[in-house]
Amino acid sequence: MRKNITVYEHIRSNNIKTMILVALFPIIFIALIFLFTWIVVPMNQALETTVQVAVPTIIACISWMIISWAFGDSMMLGSVGAHEIHDRDPKYREVFRSVENVAIAAGLPCPRVYIIDDDSMNAFATGRTPRDASVALTRGIIRRLDKLELEGVIAHEMAHIGNRDIRLDMLLITGVGVTVFAADLLLRMAMSGTRISNDNDNRGNGAAILLMVWAAFMVFNLIITPILRMAISRKREFVADATGAQITRNPHALANALRKISTDSRVESMDKVKSMAAVCIENPGPREFIGEIFATHPPVAERIKRLEQMG
User: pLDDT at position 303, please?
Assistant: First the structure.
């Protein structure tokens, strides 16, 4: 006989998997630098180079994360042209009330509510903490979902807020930006060293080390980071689905909403802001034939299946 899976088991399992994936970022980053450097220099020098590269890179990541922490949410909302609504607006009063009701059920402060002028169906949440969070809904998702389905979507986004998923994704985006910049800087330094290597063997050796460190950065940025980040995003979507179902006590409403959203989730204003795809309830970009390992979201069919099991 098949065992029923509870909401709490879903949440606990995916939280553990997320922590493991986050821990892999620095472990793999350091390992790549060491292994690539070890190709051209002895082990002791490779270890020394790894420390010299990893420490300042991590410090730079933390510094840039602080800046992102302060301004990231307003930049995200501004990039898609979202505008805030209030309960005084008769047109969106019922939507605002739904957000308030879901926030109360979730035991969280009511977030600010934003509308994106797009007739497709999508939504995302942003904010550093639950006290300064925002929920953004497209005009289409408000018009085309019924009340219970829309509350399921709002509960999913409130779950992201309560689980601090937005903060996690913002920090990951920031960290990737720093390593991309560092890789470009290393390549310039390596090429400069290569040009003068014929006159100085030590400088030539240094250029070779820089090239290998650059290669390690590129493997990390282009292969490892997308795989890990998308894996984290998929796990957090499962957690948000489970938590949203727990908030509304209506997993079928969210399942029905996902069925509808999957038919028209593209938001044109996000086409050029691909880094935001992971924070939306469904991929807001054009349909692409990419492997599941690089997908920002789990398959909708699998999400619906899990929600219906909770029913």
Answer: 94
In tens, the pLDDT along 211-250 reads: 888 888 889 888 888 888 788 788 889 889 999 999 999 9
pLDDT value at position 196?
46
Q: Is 157 a catalytic residue?
A: yes
Q: For the chain, give the secondary structure using H, E and C.
A: CCCCCCHHHHHHHHHHHHHHHHHHHHHHHHHHHHHHHHCCCCHHHHHHHHHHHHHHHHHHHHHHHHHHHHHHHHHHHHHCCCEEECCCCHHHHHHHHHHHHHHHHHCCCCCEEEEECCCCCCEEEECCCHHHCEEEEEHHHHHHCCHHHHHHHHHHHHHHHHCCHHHHHHHHHHHHHHHHHHHHHHHHHHHHHHHCCCCCHHHHHHHHHHHHHHHHHHHHHHHHHHHHHHHHHHHHHHHHHHHHHHHHCCHHHHHHHHHHHCCCCCCHHHCCCHHHHHHECCCCCCCCCCCHHHCCCCCHHHHHHHHHHHC
Task: Please write the tens of the pLDDT for every residue from 177-191.
Answer: 777 777 777 777 767
Residue 1 has pLDDT above 50, yes or no: no
CA 238-304-141 angle, 5° bins: 90
Catalytic residue among 149, 151, 157, 237: 157
Write down the residue that tokens 């599941």 correspond to.
292
Per-residue pLDDT tens over the stretch 15-28? 677 778 778 888 88
Per the CB < 8 A criterion, the answer to whether 69 and 61 are in contact is no
Query: Cα separation of 236 and 250, whole Å?
Result: 19
User: Are 128 and 122 a contacting pair, CB within 8 Å?
Assistant: no
The pair of three-digit structure tokens given for residue 193, joined into one six-digit string: 């060293």
The answer to whether 239 and 163 have CB atoms below 8 angstroms apart is yes
Residue 92 has pLDDT above 60, yes or no: yes
